[in-house]
Amino acid sequence: xxxxxxxxxxxxxxxxxxxxxxxxxxxxxxxxxxxxxxxxxxxxxxxxxxxxxxxxxxxxxxxxxxxxxxxxxxxxxxxxxxxxxxxxxxxxxxxxxxxxxxxxxxxxxxxxxxxxxxxxxxxxxxxxxxxx
Length: 132
Fold this sequence. Notes:
Number of helices: 5
Shape: elongated
Radius of gyration: 16 Å
Number of strands: 0
């Protein structure tokens, strides 16, 4: 493989990871805003499930149109493919809620830990299975 072909492949992967990070950041912002909104109406455990639903719908749309630039296998397979990441995200969120001291940023920190814990797994599962 020539150097220029290798550079193009790396640029493509780097670009895809950058777009995935942007899509994830938008999803995180949606998740955070809705988490705080919903937690004013219910407990932080149920609030997280509601905010996560909307954030996942947004990231699915962004990942199909922006990150991978193809439809993939659809929304239901997207959720199924992300199920391990969803569990990893939520369990980490629950652990952080239990371990962090309670203050105004506890929900946001727990959300960040949960999202960060699942990010690499979700990217690889999307790349290899959902958008191959």
